[in-house]
Amino acid sequence: MLNAVFMGLSFWGVKIGTAGAGGVIITTLSPVITVGIAIFFLGYRPTLRHWIGLGIGVIGGAVMLQVWESEVFFHGGNVIFVLCALVWAVLTLAAQKSHVHIDPVHYTFLLGLTATLIMFVIAYPYGIEKVFQQDERFWAAMVYLAVLGQTVASTIYFIASGAMGSGRASSYMFLVPVSALATSFVLLGEIPSASLIIGGIISMAAVYLINHRQRA
To answer: What confidence tens digit (pLDDT) does each residue in 69-82 have?
Structure first.
């Protein structure tokens, strides 16, 4: 159910907000919220390096968003993306706990199946059969998102959540805007701004700081 709520909020936010800001807001706030929930409800105690890394990650996201130039959190539907970050944080913690009861691959399958059934029931009254009128380009994008973006990526992420803990695994979400930046440059020829490059480097430093293990 949380997965269905996350997808619904994401598409709603993209519809009335800005997709670029959403990609940064969700991936920047989600690791912080995940750690916060884990502290209060699971007794998680992050190290000082982890706290510093989270702070650096937030700074990196703020630089990419250029928060000093606009009220990004209060513009359009971007507030919805904050709710997305909260939902994804809870979903991450649930995935970590699920490892005790079920294999991550089976968990991802049930997660996707349940969310699909819920969204189908919601979408049916709005003429969902029109999707079959779309061309091959649409279906190619749909298959890519479903197989790689949802199934493969989510399975790997949930496996990492169980093996590393949700606090450390969620920190890798800081790299999502960096990956989007790199692929948009390679595939679309988009030239990143200085703030995106600087913010991306800061976010990479945050992930390294949180997950790097010092030698004894």
So the answer is: 655 555 666 788 88
